[in-house]
Specification:
- It is built from 17 helices and 25 strands.
- The chain has 491 residues and is α+β, with helices and mostly antiparallel strands.
- It has a seven-stranded antiparallel β-sheet with strand order 3-2-4-1-10-9-11. It has a six-stranded antiparallel β-sheet with strand order 5-6-7-8-12-13, with helices on one face. The protein has a four-stranded parallel β-sheet with strand order 17-20-21-22, sandwiched between helices.
- Helix 5 packs across helix 6, helix 9 crosses helix 10 and helix 11 packs parallel to helix 13.
- The chain starts with 10 loop residues before the first strand and ends in a 21-residue tail after the last helix.
Protein backbone atom coordinates (compact mmCIF):
# COMPACT_ATOMS: atom_id res chain seq x y z
CA UNK A 1 0.00 0.00 0.00
CA UNK A 2 1.55 3.24 -1.09
CA UNK A 3 -0.58 5.38 1.15
CA UNK A 4 -0.26 4.53 4.79
CA UNK A 5 -1.90 6.48 7.57
CA UNK A 6 -3.41 3.38 9.10
CA UNK A 7 -2.38 0.22 10.85
CA UNK A 8 -3.54 -3.36 10.91
CA UNK A 9 -3.60 -5.40 14.04
CA UNK A 10 -1.01 -8.06 14.34
CA UNK A 11 -0.40 -11.74 13.73
CA UNK A 12 -0.97 -14.61 16.14
CA UNK A 13 0.12 -18.22 16.38
CA UNK A 14 -0.49 -21.10 18.79
CA UNK A 15 0.94 -24.62 18.95
CA UNK A 16 0.61 -27.92 20.81
CA UNK A 17 2.86 -30.92 20.11
CA UNK A 18 4.63 -33.88 21.67
CA UNK A 19 7.92 -31.98 21.35
CA UNK A 20 9.17 -28.50 22.15
CA UNK A 21 7.21 -25.94 20.06
CA UNK A 22 9.25 -22.78 20.65
CA UNK A 23 11.14 -23.11 17.35
CA UNK A 24 7.91 -23.51 15.38
CA UNK A 25 6.42 -20.49 17.15
CA UNK A 26 9.51 -18.42 16.39
CA UNK A 27 9.58 -19.42 12.73
CA UNK A 28 5.84 -18.74 12.43
CA UNK A 29 6.30 -15.22 13.74
CA UNK A 30 9.11 -14.60 11.26
CA UNK A 31 6.72 -15.68 8.50
CA UNK A 32 4.00 -13.36 9.85
CA UNK A 33 6.37 -10.41 10.36
CA UNK A 34 4.58 -8.45 7.61
CA UNK A 35 1.56 -8.15 9.92
CA UNK A 36 3.41 -6.25 12.65
CA UNK A 37 6.89 -4.85 13.19
CA UNK A 38 6.66 -2.93 16.45
CA UNK A 39 6.95 -5.81 18.91
CA UNK A 40 7.03 -9.59 19.11
CA UNK A 41 6.75 -12.26 21.75
CA UNK A 42 6.42 -15.94 22.60
CA UNK A 43 4.87 -17.60 25.66
CA UNK A 44 5.24 -21.32 26.46
CA UNK A 45 4.12 -23.52 29.35
CA UNK A 46 7.14 -24.69 31.34
CA UNK A 47 5.90 -25.39 34.88
CA UNK A 48 4.24 -22.00 34.51
CA UNK A 49 4.12 -19.55 31.65
CA UNK A 50 7.51 -18.32 30.44
CA UNK A 51 7.79 -15.47 27.96
CA UNK A 52 10.29 -13.76 25.70
CA UNK A 53 9.07 -10.50 24.20
CA UNK A 54 10.10 -6.96 23.42
CA UNK A 55 10.05 -4.04 21.01
CA UNK A 56 11.35 -4.71 17.51
CA UNK A 57 11.50 -7.44 14.90
CA UNK A 58 11.21 -11.10 15.88
CA UNK A 59 14.87 -12.03 15.39
CA UNK A 60 16.00 -8.96 17.35
CA UNK A 61 13.60 -9.50 20.25
CA UNK A 62 14.16 -13.25 20.62
CA UNK A 63 17.83 -14.13 20.04
CA UNK A 64 18.92 -17.74 19.67
CA UNK A 65 20.14 -18.07 23.26
CA UNK A 66 16.82 -16.91 24.69
CA UNK A 67 14.85 -19.10 22.28
CA UNK A 68 16.80 -22.17 23.42
CA UNK A 69 15.74 -21.47 27.00
CA UNK A 70 12.05 -21.51 26.04
CA UNK A 71 11.10 -25.17 26.27
CA UNK A 72 7.46 -26.20 26.18
CA UNK A 73 5.02 -28.50 24.42
CA UNK A 74 2.33 -25.80 24.17
CA UNK A 75 2.69 -22.10 23.49
CA UNK A 76 1.55 -19.00 21.63
CA UNK A 77 3.21 -16.13 19.77
CA UNK A 78 2.40 -12.62 18.60
CA UNK A 79 3.71 -9.85 16.32
CA UNK A 80 2.20 -6.42 16.85
CA UNK A 81 1.77 -2.91 15.79
CA UNK A 82 -0.57 -0.70 17.76
CA UNK A 83 -4.20 0.04 16.95
CA UNK A 84 -5.66 0.28 20.46
CA UNK A 85 -2.90 1.11 22.93
CA UNK A 86 0.41 2.80 22.24
CA UNK A 87 3.63 1.42 20.81
CA UNK A 88 5.24 0.74 24.20
CA UNK A 89 6.91 -2.15 25.98
CA UNK A 90 4.03 -2.71 28.40
CA UNK A 91 1.69 -3.31 25.46
CA UNK A 92 3.87 -6.07 23.98
CA UNK A 93 2.11 -9.40 23.68
CA UNK A 94 1.48 -12.12 24.70
CA UNK A 95 -0.05 -10.47 27.77
CA UNK A 96 0.20 -12.68 30.86
CA UNK A 97 -1.97 -12.58 34.00
CA UNK A 98 -2.42 -14.95 36.93
CA UNK A 99 -5.63 -16.83 37.76
CA UNK A 100 -6.67 -19.54 40.21
CA UNK A 101 -6.47 -21.99 37.26
CA UNK A 102 -2.90 -20.98 36.48
CA UNK A 103 -1.18 -18.35 34.37
CA UNK A 104 -3.02 -17.09 31.29
CA UNK A 105 -1.23 -15.69 28.21
CA UNK A 106 -3.07 -14.10 25.30
CA UNK A 107 -2.25 -12.89 21.78
CA UNK A 108 -4.86 -10.77 19.99
CA UNK A 109 -5.38 -9.72 16.38
CA UNK A 110 -8.21 -7.24 15.99
CA UNK A 111 -9.89 -4.54 18.03
CA UNK A 112 -12.56 -4.56 20.72
CA UNK A 113 -15.19 -1.93 19.98
CA UNK A 114 -16.64 -1.72 23.49
CA UNK A 115 -13.22 -1.64 25.18
CA UNK A 116 -13.51 1.93 26.51
CA UNK A 117 -16.88 1.23 28.11
CA UNK A 118 -15.68 -2.04 29.60
CA UNK A 119 -12.51 -0.46 30.96
CA UNK A 120 -14.48 2.37 32.60
CA UNK A 121 -16.99 -0.04 34.14
CA UNK A 122 -14.27 -2.34 35.46
CA UNK A 123 -12.21 0.52 36.87
CA UNK A 124 -15.27 1.67 38.81
CA UNK A 125 -15.31 -1.80 40.36
CA UNK A 126 -11.69 -1.41 41.41
CA UNK A 127 -9.96 -3.23 38.58
CA UNK A 128 -6.48 -1.92 37.77
CA UNK A 129 -4.93 -2.10 34.30
CA UNK A 130 -1.23 -2.12 33.55
CA UNK A 131 -1.46 -1.42 29.81
CA UNK A 132 -3.53 0.77 27.51
CA UNK A 133 -4.26 -2.17 25.20
CA UNK A 134 -7.76 -3.52 24.62
CA UNK A 135 -6.16 -6.97 24.70
CA UNK A 136 -5.55 -6.64 28.44
CA UNK A 137 -9.28 -6.19 28.93
CA UNK A 138 -9.89 -9.53 27.22
CA UNK A 139 -7.33 -11.45 29.27
CA UNK A 140 -8.46 -9.94 32.59
CA UNK A 141 -12.10 -10.70 31.83
CA UNK A 142 -11.04 -14.22 30.94
CA UNK A 143 -9.15 -14.62 34.22
CA UNK A 144 -12.20 -13.38 36.11
CA UNK A 145 -14.49 -15.84 34.32
CA UNK A 146 -12.12 -18.72 35.06
CA UNK A 147 -12.14 -17.74 38.72
CA UNK A 148 -15.94 -17.78 38.63
CA UNK A 149 -16.47 -20.98 36.62
CA UNK A 150 -13.22 -22.93 36.94
CA UNK A 151 -13.36 -24.25 33.37
CA UNK A 152 -11.46 -22.65 30.47
CA UNK A 153 -13.89 -23.27 27.62
CA UNK A 154 -16.85 -21.95 29.60
CA UNK A 155 -14.75 -18.95 30.64
CA UNK A 156 -13.86 -18.22 26.99
CA UNK A 157 -17.53 -18.49 25.99
CA UNK A 158 -18.57 -16.09 28.73
CA UNK A 159 -15.84 -13.63 27.78
CA UNK A 160 -17.01 -13.75 24.15
CA UNK A 161 -20.50 -12.79 25.35
CA UNK A 162 -19.07 -9.63 26.93
CA UNK A 163 -16.65 -8.32 24.30
CA UNK A 164 -17.66 -6.91 20.91
CA UNK A 165 -15.61 -6.31 17.80
CA UNK A 166 -12.88 -8.15 15.91
CA UNK A 167 -10.70 -10.75 17.57
CA UNK A 168 -8.66 -13.70 16.49
CA UNK A 169 -7.01 -14.99 19.65
CA UNK A 170 -4.44 -17.54 20.70
CA UNK A 171 -4.65 -18.27 24.41
CA UNK A 172 -2.48 -20.27 26.80
CA UNK A 173 -4.45 -21.25 29.93
CA UNK A 174 -2.21 -23.26 32.20
CA UNK A 175 -0.88 -26.02 29.97
CA UNK A 176 -3.79 -25.82 27.49
CA UNK A 177 -3.75 -23.79 24.27
CA UNK A 178 -6.77 -22.40 22.41
CA UNK A 179 -7.48 -20.57 19.17
CA UNK A 180 -10.59 -18.36 19.07
CA UNK A 181 -12.26 -16.47 16.22
CA UNK A 182 -14.95 -13.86 16.77
CA UNK A 183 -18.56 -14.59 15.68
CA UNK A 184 -18.19 -12.44 12.55
CA UNK A 185 -14.81 -13.98 11.61
CA UNK A 186 -13.52 -10.50 10.78
CA UNK A 187 -9.82 -11.30 11.13
CA UNK A 188 -8.29 -14.49 9.68
CA UNK A 189 -7.32 -17.54 11.71
CA UNK A 190 -6.62 -21.06 10.49
CA UNK A 191 -5.26 -24.37 11.74
CA UNK A 192 -2.83 -26.93 10.39
CA UNK A 193 -1.12 -30.16 11.38
CA UNK A 194 2.59 -30.25 12.09
CA UNK A 195 4.86 -33.15 12.93
CA UNK A 196 3.59 -34.43 16.27
CA UNK A 197 0.93 -31.79 16.83
CA UNK A 198 -1.15 -28.86 15.62
CA UNK A 199 -0.58 -25.20 14.85
CA UNK A 200 -2.99 -22.24 14.58
CA UNK A 201 -1.92 -19.08 12.74
CA UNK A 202 -3.23 -15.88 11.24
CA UNK A 203 -2.33 -17.00 7.71
CA UNK A 204 -1.99 -20.30 5.89
CA UNK A 205 1.43 -19.35 4.50
CA UNK A 206 2.82 -20.42 7.88
CA UNK A 207 1.93 -24.05 7.15
CA UNK A 208 3.30 -23.90 3.60
CA UNK A 209 6.64 -22.55 4.76
CA UNK A 210 7.03 -24.95 7.69
CA UNK A 211 6.05 -28.01 5.67
CA UNK A 212 2.87 -28.48 7.70
CA UNK A 213 -0.56 -29.45 6.36
CA UNK A 214 -3.19 -26.75 6.17
CA UNK A 215 -6.46 -28.13 7.54
CA UNK A 216 -9.03 -25.34 7.52
CA UNK A 217 -10.02 -21.85 8.60
CA UNK A 218 -11.66 -21.50 11.99
CA UNK A 219 -15.40 -21.05 11.77
CA UNK A 220 -17.08 -17.85 12.99
CA UNK A 221 -17.34 -17.97 16.77
CA UNK A 222 -15.28 -21.15 17.06
CA UNK A 223 -13.18 -22.06 20.10
CA UNK A 224 -10.58 -24.63 19.08
CA UNK A 225 -8.40 -26.39 21.64
CA UNK A 226 -5.10 -27.67 20.25
CA UNK A 227 -3.62 -30.81 21.77
CA UNK A 228 -0.79 -33.06 20.52
CA UNK A 229 -3.36 -35.74 19.81
CA UNK A 230 -6.05 -33.72 18.05
CA UNK A 231 -8.39 -30.74 17.93
CA UNK A 232 -11.42 -30.13 20.15
CA UNK A 233 -13.94 -27.69 18.66
CA UNK A 234 -16.61 -25.71 20.50
CA UNK A 235 -19.02 -23.50 18.57
CA UNK A 236 -20.61 -20.35 19.95
CA UNK A 237 -23.58 -18.44 18.48
CA UNK A 238 -22.74 -16.61 15.27
CA UNK A 239 -24.78 -14.54 12.77
CA UNK A 240 -25.92 -16.10 9.52
CA UNK A 241 -23.45 -13.95 7.57
CA UNK A 242 -19.79 -13.49 8.58
CA UNK A 243 -17.98 -10.21 7.96
CA UNK A 244 -14.52 -11.05 6.64
CA UNK A 245 -12.36 -7.93 6.29
CA UNK A 246 -11.93 -7.17 2.59
CA UNK A 247 -8.56 -5.50 3.29
CA UNK A 248 -6.99 -8.86 4.10
CA UNK A 249 -7.23 -9.76 0.41
CA UNK A 250 -6.56 -6.26 -0.91
CA UNK A 251 -3.41 -5.56 1.11
CA UNK A 252 -2.67 -7.09 4.50
CA UNK A 253 -2.17 -10.80 3.91
CA UNK A 254 0.75 -12.29 2.03
CA UNK A 255 -0.12 -13.09 -1.60
CA UNK A 256 0.70 -16.78 -1.03
CA UNK A 257 -1.84 -17.12 1.79
CA UNK A 258 -5.36 -18.48 1.38
CA UNK A 259 -7.99 -16.78 3.53
CA UNK A 260 -11.45 -18.28 3.96
CA UNK A 261 -11.05 -20.35 0.83
CA UNK A 262 -9.72 -17.59 -1.45
CA UNK A 263 -6.04 -17.45 -2.47
CA UNK A 264 -4.87 -13.88 -1.93
CA UNK A 265 -2.71 -13.79 -5.09
CA UNK A 266 -5.62 -14.88 -7.28
CA UNK A 267 -7.93 -12.29 -5.71
CA UNK A 268 -5.42 -9.48 -6.28
CA UNK A 269 -4.87 -10.50 -9.86
CA UNK A 270 -8.65 -10.51 -10.44
CA UNK A 271 -8.82 -7.07 -8.83
CA UNK A 272 -6.40 -5.82 -11.48
CA UNK A 273 -8.28 -7.51 -14.30
CA UNK A 274 -11.59 -5.98 -13.27
CA UNK A 275 -9.93 -2.61 -12.69
CA UNK A 276 -8.62 -2.66 -16.26
CA UNK A 277 -12.14 -3.29 -17.56
CA UNK A 278 -13.70 -0.61 -15.38
CA UNK A 279 -10.95 2.04 -15.57
CA UNK A 280 -8.90 1.68 -18.78
CA UNK A 281 -6.07 4.14 -19.46
CA UNK A 282 -4.41 5.40 -22.64
CA UNK A 283 -0.79 4.77 -21.76
CA UNK A 284 2.47 3.11 -22.75
CA UNK A 285 3.46 1.04 -19.71
CA UNK A 286 2.09 -0.30 -16.44
CA UNK A 287 4.21 0.25 -13.33
CA UNK A 288 3.25 -1.40 -10.03
CA UNK A 289 3.97 0.26 -6.71
CA UNK A 290 5.91 -2.51 -4.98
CA UNK A 291 5.15 -4.78 -3.42
CA UNK A 292 1.42 -4.56 -2.83
CA UNK A 293 0.57 -3.35 -6.34
CA UNK A 294 2.32 -6.15 -8.23
CA UNK A 295 -0.45 -8.73 -8.40
CA UNK A 296 -3.00 -6.05 -9.27
CA UNK A 297 -0.72 -4.76 -12.04
CA UNK A 298 -0.31 -8.23 -13.56
CA UNK A 299 -4.07 -8.58 -13.84
CA UNK A 300 -4.39 -5.08 -15.31
CA UNK A 301 -1.66 -5.93 -17.82
CA UNK A 302 -3.37 -9.11 -19.04
CA UNK A 303 -6.65 -7.33 -19.77
CA UNK A 304 -5.26 -4.02 -21.08
CA UNK A 305 -2.49 -5.48 -23.22
CA UNK A 306 -0.06 -2.83 -21.96
CA UNK A 307 3.43 -4.03 -20.99
CA UNK A 308 4.19 -4.63 -17.33
CA UNK A 309 7.33 -2.74 -16.29
CA UNK A 310 9.29 -2.54 -13.05
CA UNK A 311 9.74 1.21 -12.97
CA UNK A 312 10.13 1.58 -9.21
CA UNK A 313 12.73 -0.31 -7.20
CA UNK A 314 12.11 -1.06 -3.55
CA UNK A 315 14.65 -1.02 -0.73
CA UNK A 316 14.04 -4.39 0.97
CA UNK A 317 15.46 -3.17 4.26
CA UNK A 318 12.78 -0.57 4.91
CA UNK A 319 9.77 -1.79 6.90
CA UNK A 320 6.26 -1.73 5.47
CA UNK A 321 5.38 1.97 5.56
CA UNK A 322 1.68 1.24 6.02
CA UNK A 323 2.25 -0.23 9.48
CA UNK A 324 4.79 2.26 10.78
CA UNK A 325 3.37 3.88 13.93
CA UNK A 326 3.86 7.55 12.99
CA UNK A 327 2.82 9.47 9.87
CA UNK A 328 6.10 11.43 9.70
CA UNK A 329 8.06 8.15 9.65
CA UNK A 330 5.84 6.76 6.90
CA UNK A 331 6.18 9.80 4.66
CA UNK A 332 9.95 10.20 5.06
CA UNK A 333 10.41 6.47 4.43
CA UNK A 334 8.85 6.70 0.96
CA UNK A 335 11.93 8.41 -0.45
CA UNK A 336 14.17 5.80 1.16
CA UNK A 337 11.92 2.95 0.09
CA UNK A 338 11.33 3.65 -3.63
CA UNK A 339 13.71 4.72 -6.39
CA UNK A 340 12.66 5.24 -10.02
CA UNK A 341 14.26 3.52 -12.99
CA UNK A 342 14.64 6.62 -15.13
CA UNK A 343 15.46 4.84 -18.38
CA UNK A 344 12.17 2.92 -18.13
CA UNK A 345 9.98 5.92 -17.23
CA UNK A 346 11.48 8.71 -19.35
CA UNK A 347 9.06 9.97 -22.00
CA UNK A 348 6.40 7.35 -21.20
CA UNK A 349 2.73 7.58 -20.37
CA UNK A 350 2.69 5.58 -17.15
CA UNK A 351 -0.13 3.75 -15.36
CA UNK A 352 0.74 3.48 -11.67
CA UNK A 353 -1.10 0.58 -9.99
CA UNK A 354 -1.62 0.27 -6.26
CA UNK A 355 -4.07 -1.45 -3.93
CA UNK A 356 -5.54 1.60 -2.14
CA UNK A 357 -5.27 5.26 -1.20
CA UNK A 358 -5.87 6.41 2.37
CA UNK A 359 -4.54 9.92 3.03
CA UNK A 360 -3.17 10.54 -0.45
CA UNK A 361 0.06 12.19 0.73
CA UNK A 362 2.30 9.24 -0.07
CA UNK A 363 0.66 8.65 -3.44
CA UNK A 364 1.34 12.29 -4.27
CA UNK A 365 5.02 11.74 -3.43
CA UNK A 366 5.19 8.69 -5.68
CA UNK A 367 3.49 10.46 -8.59
CA UNK A 368 6.05 13.25 -8.28
CA UNK A 369 8.92 10.74 -8.12
CA UNK A 370 7.71 9.23 -11.41
CA UNK A 371 7.27 12.65 -13.00
CA UNK A 372 10.71 13.66 -11.79
CA UNK A 373 12.12 10.61 -13.57
CA UNK A 374 10.82 12.00 -16.86
CA UNK A 375 7.40 10.37 -17.28
CA UNK A 376 5.27 12.17 -19.85
CA UNK A 377 1.98 11.37 -18.10
CA UNK A 378 1.08 9.62 -14.84
CA UNK A 379 -2.26 7.82 -14.56
CA UNK A 380 -3.13 6.24 -11.22
CA UNK A 381 -5.35 3.16 -10.93
CA UNK A 382 -6.40 1.76 -7.56
CA UNK A 383 -7.45 -1.86 -6.96
CA UNK A 384 -10.10 -1.02 -4.33
CA UNK A 385 -12.91 1.52 -3.93
CA UNK A 386 -12.40 4.89 -2.19
CA UNK A 387 -11.99 4.65 1.59
CA UNK A 388 -14.48 7.09 3.07
CA UNK A 389 -15.36 5.79 6.56
CA UNK A 390 -13.41 4.91 9.71
CA UNK A 391 -12.48 1.36 10.66
CA UNK A 392 -13.14 0.28 14.24
CA UNK A 393 -12.14 -3.34 13.78
CA UNK A 394 -8.36 -3.44 13.67
CA UNK A 395 -7.24 -0.77 11.21
CA UNK A 396 -6.09 2.46 12.81
CA UNK A 397 -8.03 4.95 10.72
CA UNK A 398 -10.55 6.44 13.07
CA UNK A 399 -11.58 9.82 11.62
CA UNK A 400 -13.17 10.62 8.28
CA UNK A 401 -11.10 13.79 8.00
CA UNK A 402 -7.90 11.81 7.39
CA UNK A 403 -9.12 10.18 4.17
CA UNK A 404 -8.31 11.57 0.75
CA UNK A 405 -11.79 10.53 -0.41
CA UNK A 406 -13.63 12.24 2.45
CA UNK A 407 -15.85 14.92 0.93
CA UNK A 408 -13.94 14.90 -2.36
CA UNK A 409 -14.78 13.74 -5.84
CA UNK A 410 -12.42 11.45 -7.74
CA UNK A 411 -11.43 14.45 -9.87
CA UNK A 412 -10.52 16.45 -6.77
CA UNK A 413 -8.43 13.57 -5.40
CA UNK A 414 -6.72 13.31 -8.77
CA UNK A 415 -5.69 16.95 -8.59
CA UNK A 416 -4.55 16.51 -4.99
CA UNK A 417 -2.16 13.68 -5.89
CA UNK A 418 -1.05 15.58 -9.04
CA UNK A 419 -1.95 12.71 -11.41
CA UNK A 420 -3.20 13.08 -14.97
CA UNK A 421 -6.08 10.71 -14.23
CA UNK A 422 -7.32 8.55 -11.37
CA UNK A 423 -9.56 5.50 -11.40
CA UNK A 424 -10.83 3.34 -8.54
CA UNK A 425 -12.28 -0.14 -8.58
CA UNK A 426 -16.02 -0.33 -7.86
CA UNK A 427 -17.46 -2.08 -4.81
CA UNK A 428 -19.15 -4.54 -7.17
CA UNK A 429 -15.80 -5.25 -8.79
CA UNK A 430 -14.18 -5.77 -5.40
CA UNK A 431 -16.82 -8.29 -4.33
CA UNK A 432 -16.56 -10.11 -7.67
CA UNK A 433 -12.78 -10.39 -7.35
CA UNK A 434 -12.84 -11.72 -3.77
CA UNK A 435 -15.30 -14.41 -4.82
CA UNK A 436 -17.45 -14.37 -1.67
CA UNK A 437 -20.95 -12.90 -1.33
CA UNK A 438 -20.93 -9.24 -0.45
CA UNK A 439 -23.08 -9.96 2.60
CA UNK A 440 -20.21 -12.08 3.95
CA UNK A 441 -17.67 -9.23 3.84
CA UNK A 442 -16.96 -6.26 6.08
CA UNK A 443 -17.06 -3.22 3.78
CA UNK A 444 -17.49 -0.70 6.57
CA UNK A 445 -14.61 1.57 5.53
CA UNK A 446 -16.19 1.83 2.06
CA UNK A 447 -19.90 1.99 2.89
CA UNK A 448 -20.08 3.30 6.46
CA UNK A 449 -22.11 0.25 7.54
CA UNK A 450 -20.55 -2.08 10.10
CA UNK A 451 -21.13 -5.65 11.26
CA UNK A 452 -21.01 -4.76 14.97
CA UNK A 453 -22.65 -1.90 16.89
CA UNK A 454 -20.60 1.31 16.80
CA UNK A 455 -21.93 4.41 18.54
CA UNK A 456 -23.07 6.92 15.91
CA UNK A 457 -22.61 4.50 12.99
CA UNK A 458 -24.94 2.29 10.98
CA UNK A 459 -25.11 -1.46 11.37
CA UNK A 460 -25.10 -3.36 8.09
CA UNK A 461 -28.52 -4.71 7.03
CA UNK A 462 -30.06 -1.88 9.08
CA UNK A 463 -32.20 -0.59 6.22
CA UNK A 464 -33.48 -4.06 5.50
CA UNK A 465 -34.17 -4.56 9.20
CA UNK A 466 -36.26 -1.37 9.23
CA UNK A 467 -38.11 -2.57 6.16
CA UNK A 468 -38.68 -5.89 7.87
CA UNK A 469 -40.17 -4.17 10.89
CA UNK A 470 -42.35 -1.76 8.92
CA UNK A 471 -43.62 -4.09 6.23
CA UNK A 472 -43.84 -7.86 6.02
CA UNK A 473 -41.21 -10.53 6.68
CA UNK A 474 -40.77 -10.87 2.93
CA UNK A 475 -39.70 -7.24 2.71
CA UNK A 476 -36.52 -7.78 4.73
CA UNK A 477 -34.27 -10.43 6.14
CA UNK A 478 -35.63 -13.26 8.17
CA UNK A 479 -34.69 -13.11 11.83
CA UNK A 480 -32.21 -15.96 11.39
CA UNK A 481 -30.37 -13.90 8.76
CA UNK A 482 -29.77 -10.95 11.06
CA UNK A 483 -26.46 -10.52 12.81
CA UNK A 484 -26.93 -10.85 16.55
CA UNK A 485 -26.04 -7.22 17.10
CA UNK A 486 -28.82 -6.07 14.75
CA UNK A 487 -31.65 -8.03 16.31
CA UNK A 488 -34.33 -6.10 18.21
CA UNK A 489 -33.42 -5.66 21.84
CA UNK A 490 -29.66 -5.68 21.31
CA UNK A 491 -27.43 -2.66 21.55
Amino acid sequence: MSEPGTHEACGVVGAAAVKNVSTELYQSLRILQHRGQESAGIAVWQNGVRTAKGMGLVHHVIPTRELEELQGHVGIGHVRYSTAGGSTMENCQPIVVASNYGDIALGHNGEITNADRLRAELQKKGWAFITTSDSEIIVRLLANEISAHGEPIRAIRETMRIIEGAYSLTILIGNRVFAVRDPHAIRPLCVGEIDGGYLAASESVVFDTLGAEFLRDLEPGEILELTPGGLQSTRTPAPAHPAHCMFEWVYFARPDSAIDGQLVYDVRKRLGEILAREQPAAADIIVPIPDSGRSHALGFCEVSGLPYTEGLMKNRYIERTFIMPHQAERESSVMLKLNPVKSVLRGKRVVLIDDSIVRGTTMKQIVQIVRGAGAKEVHVRIGSPPIRSPCYLGIDMKTRQQFAASGKTVEEICRMITADSLGYLSIEGLVEAIGLPGVDLCLGCLTGEYPVPIEGEKIRFQRRLEAYAEASPAAGLEASELPAAAKPGSK
